[in-house]
């Protein structure tokens, strides 16, 4: 038997590394309940781990943590796969992830906190708070005499507003998400901007660039939330990180949410596969790159844990309150999570996230407008957003449900995993 013992231990260890879900050890972010007490099937929930573990085994996913809460109770929290596959470290329930664009909803909340205090108005032009961005011009691409594209500028019909920034209708693009000559002028992404520019340098750079469309006419995913982060700093007189820590992260108990990874927590940081599983090209995520942040970018530079983000999402589901403390007014959350795109604005939400067909966009979130259209299940009025490094969350007020999914999977495969996770969570509801 002694000769066989190491083999048994090895097999058990491999089962853990290859994706078998593990029990949660960290204190719960919410009160807990068994799934059946809130109308969810434990047997059906187990399908999530089975499907995602298969992805780990196939080398298509390094690992993940995910949590589901219903009616204010945490009913499911799982970890699987690797924290760092290259070194063989298994995923842990207190893992810390680069959020990428899941930073945006938190910055949107910060803006609305200032709005509730009367310090910001949504129809104010951004130039009121950031004079560098006053008198914006709009680029128009024409063909020159030599046949090459030439950018001319025209006056904006109106200046981009705070509301435009919140709903991505400002005319500001992401340079890396378009092929036009105008897009080529703009910084590629939030993470690129944060490692290339200080806040002042970022404003100086974009102040010279033409808008890609007339404000208020087109939804285009953008650097708008990075600009909002600088608005928070200008209005509050504090760094974006300090404002969020004082007003949101600290009071909510989001102890692992920040813009910088503390050295003492580096062993909890989740890393991507060394190569994209589809393209086989090298890949990494922001805080693993080794490049220091010059700017606390509101569009994509925060880190957080699954537990922390669960508390943020539950606060939103509760219409702005958690554990007896109010962060936003009820009507404010309802306002933020309503569609602000409407029928007069060109809606390109599904261009950025294909599973978001049938969605509009609120003040920081995609908002579902119809039960059908999307190939992914959901409810009218659910709202969500995701991060380019593999994170995703959504809130479903009709079902009193929140779900948070965290991974380091920055390639296109992340969109498959978001859709898979969404559908498998919703199929587990049985009441």
How many strands, which pairing sense, and closed or not: the largest β-sheet?
Answer: 8 strands, antiparallel
Q: Mind telling me the C-alpha Rg? A: 22 Å
Quickly count the helices.
12
Q: Quick one: overall form? A: globular
What is the SS-derived class?
A: alpha+beta
According to CATH, what is the topology of the domain at 19-94 and 266-288 and 304-426? Beta-lactamase
Strand order of the largest sheet: 3-2-1-14-13-12-11-10
Q: Which percent range describes the beta-strand content? A: 15-25%
Query: Order of helices and strands, N to C?
Result: HHEEEEHEEHHHHHEHEEHHEEEEEH
- Measured between the Cα atoms of the first and last residue, the distance is 49 Å
Low-confidence stretches: 1-19
Number of strands: 14
> From the coordinates shown, what is the CATH architecture of the domain at 19-94 and 266-288 and 304-426?
3-Layer(aba) Sandwich
Q: Can you give a write-up of this model?
A:
It is a single chain. The protein is α+β, with helices and mostly antiparallel strands and 431 residues long. The protein has 12 helices and 14 strands. The protein has helices at 5-17, 42-57, 104-116, 162-167, 190-196, 199-206, 224-236, 240-252, 306-317, 330-336, 349-352, 413-426, and strands spanning 63-70, 73-84, 89-90, 96-98, 137-143, 149-155, 303-305, 321-322, 325-326, 359-361, 366-368, 383-386, 392-396, 401-406. The chain has an 8-stranded antiparallel β-sheet with strand order 3-2-1-14-13-12-11-10, sandwiched between helices. Residues 1-19 have low confidence and may be disordered.
């Amino acid at each position: 038997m002694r000769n066989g013992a190491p083999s048994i231990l090895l097999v058990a260890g491999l089962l853990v590394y290859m994706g078998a879900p593990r029990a949660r050890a960290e204190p719960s972010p919410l009160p807990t309940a068994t799934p059946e007490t809130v109308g969810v099937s434990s047997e059906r929930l187990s399908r999530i781990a089975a499907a995602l573990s298969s992805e780990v085994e196939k080398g298509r996913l390094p690992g993940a943590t995910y949590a589901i809460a219903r009616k204010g109770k945490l009913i499911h929290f799982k970890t699987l796969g690797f924290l760092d596959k290259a070194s063989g470290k298994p995923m842990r329930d207190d893992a810390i992830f680069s959020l990428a664009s899941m930073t945006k909803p938190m910055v949107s909340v910060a803006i609305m906190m200032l709005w509730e205090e009367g310090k910001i108005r949504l129809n104010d032009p951004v130039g009121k708070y950031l004079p560098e961005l006053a008198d914006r011009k709009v680029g128009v691409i024409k063909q020159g005499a030599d046949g090459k594209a030439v950018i001319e500028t025209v006056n904006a019909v109106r200046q981009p507003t705070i509301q435009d920034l919140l709903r991505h209708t400002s005319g500001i693009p992401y340079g890396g998400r378009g092929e036009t000559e105008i897009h080529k002028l703009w910084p590629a992404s939030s993470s690129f901007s944060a490692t290339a520019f200080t806040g002042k340098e970022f404003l100086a750079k974009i102040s010279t660039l033409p808008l890609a469309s007339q404000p208020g006419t087109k939804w285009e995913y953008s650097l708008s939330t990075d600009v909002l982060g600088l608005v928070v700093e200008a209005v509050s007189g504090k760094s974006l990180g300090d404002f969020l820590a004082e007003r949101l992260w600290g009071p909510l108990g989001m102890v692992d949410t920040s813009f910088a990874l503390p050295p003492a927590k580096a062993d909890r940081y989740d890393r991507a596969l060394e190569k994209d599983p589809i393209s086989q090209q090298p890949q990494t995520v922001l805080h693993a790159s080794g490049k220091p942040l010059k700017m606390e970018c509101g569009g994509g530079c925060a880190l957080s844990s699954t537990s922390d983000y669960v508390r943020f999402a539950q606060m939103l589901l509760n219409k702005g309150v958690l554990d007896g403390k109010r962060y936003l007014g009820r009507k404010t959350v309802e306002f933020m999570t309503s569609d602000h795109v409407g029928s007069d604005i060109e809606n390109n939400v599904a261009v950025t996230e294909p599973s978001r067909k049938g969605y509009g966009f609120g003040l920081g979130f995609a908002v579902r407008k119809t039960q059908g259209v999307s190939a992914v299940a959901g409810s009218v009025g659910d709202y969500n957003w995701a991060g380019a490094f593999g994170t995703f969350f959504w809130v479903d007020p009709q079902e009193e449900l929140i779900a948070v999914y965290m991974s380091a999977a920055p390639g296109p495969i992340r969109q498959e995993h978001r859709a898979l996770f969404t559908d498998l969570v919703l199929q587990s509801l049985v009441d």
